[in-house]
Amino acid sequence: MHDLVITSRRAVLPEGEGPAAVAVRDGRITGVFDADAAPEAAERVDLGDVALLPGLVDSHVHVNEPGRTHWEGFACATRAAAAGGVTTIVDMPLNSLPPTVEVSALEVKRAAAAGRCAVDVAFWGGAVPGNREELRALHEAGVRGFKCFLSPSGVDEFPPLDAAELRAVMTEIASFDGLLIVHAEDPELLADPAGPGYAEFLGSRPGESERRAVERVIALARETGVRAHILHVSSALCLEPLAEARREGVRITAETCPHYLTLAAEEVPEGATQFKCCPPIRGEANRDELWRGLAAGVLDCVVSDHSPSTPDLKVPDFAAAWGGISSLQLGLSAVWTEASRRGYGLGDVVRWMAEAPAALAGLDGKGSIAVGNDADLVAFDPGAAQTVDAAALHHRNPVTPYHGRTLTGVVRTTWLRGRAVRDGAPRGALL
Ligand SMILES: [Zn+2]
Fold it and tell me: How many angstroms does the Cα of residue 195 sit away from the middle of ligand 1?
């Protein structure tokens, strides 16, 4: 006898999309059956034409607790995640205080998260100047990999690595076969914006700075053999070096974000710094190229880079405002809106937003509907529409560039290990 059986005419399985019945017992997927052969269960849910997806894995979330909990915290971030169909987040090591650059800081963060999370949470560590000796211990303590910057991060307590430190860190991480994830902008090609407008901000962070940083990371990944990942690719100039490195067998992957795929520089309103992030949202032609990079498999993952702040830091001056976009609850609908318009299917979205991020972070048992996996599932109505009201989101601060937009696709129910997530009940585990 199963605890739960969910049937859908549009179940998105690794082998394709179609009718299926997914059975769950003790929090795990115990069987995937033909829709008309659904087994007995204590609870049966028939979704009809509403799609059944695996819970998404968002490997790029800045929760900010402890230390900047007024920007975002574990309770509200994970409630937003669940409402957006995300059943696992991987928390970034910076913006919280202390940053996750030593084991004691990881313990502080775990203590802050414990008992508060509506979905599962895993953690990235950080690689900063002077903490190389800590990396192996952090790896053994369970971080999924290490984030570093090559340019200033936006917060003083998380400084960037210079060229020599980057090589040394990569060598160290390679020694235990860990993963380095890189914010790749070359500081030599970044400038202070020449004015408060979006054009000046965009001009201060050219795509060439991303490309040059990506080329440096590739060269060092080739040299050290470390597994490396490029965070939030915004410029299509990165695609060619990434594709070439992959062909050559360099162990490198890359992600992009919903905002780079769905928004464009041409449409950023005057002073609308809810659109500010680093690297920046670029032009429409660049956005089309990013979609081609995804289709070609040069970009592996689509993850939110949810990086909120309080509204007062989003002053209407692109040179001065906090750089970070808040979208954890909206990523699936935003990406689906644009993906469906461009002829992609739910299977593509699941590959980019669930399977690939789970693989990146080494989260076995997550990211796909397969027997033995955790029963993290989402009922997603792909034809329904919603108009975004920032104030109605679970994010702590009602600031998002998607406010007022009509998105296609609505999350109806999210199950974490076979139980529907309701009212933010803190049943999430720390992974
Ligand atoms: Zn980030």
Answer: 24
Phi-psi region of 409 (alpha: psi -120 to 50; beta: other; left: phi over 0): left
- φ/ψ of residue 300, rounded to 5: -95, -45
pLDDT for 137 equals 98
Contact between 411 and 84 under an 8 Å Cβ cutoff? The reply is yes
Q: Which of 180, 117, 182 shows the shortest CA–CA distance to 151?
A: 182
Q: Is 126 helix (H, G, I), strand (E, B) or coil?
A: strand
Q: Are 174 and 206 in contact (CB under 8 A)?
A: no
User: What are the extents of the domains in the chain?
Assistant: 2-49, 55-362+387-404
Rounded distance between C-alpha atoms, residue 150 and residue 188, angstroms: 10
**If you classify domain 55-362+387-404 with CATH, what class do you get?**
alpha beta
The 10s digit of each residue's pLDDT in 86-139 is 999 999 999 999 999 999 999 999 999 999 999 999 999 999 999 999 999 999
**Distance of CA 257 from the midpoint of ligand 1 (Å):** 10
Measured in Å, residue 152 CA sits from the centre of ligand 1 at: 12
Cβ atoms within 10 A of the Cβ of 247, count?
A: 8
Closest CA to 138 of 174, 178, 88, 94: 178
pLDDT tens across 157-188, in order?
999 999 999 999 999 999 999 999 999 999 99
Compute the distance from residue 25 Cα to the ligand 1 centre, in Å. 36
Expressed in angstroms and rounded, the spacing between residue 345 Cα and the centre of ligand 1 is 27
Position 424 scores a pLDDT of 81
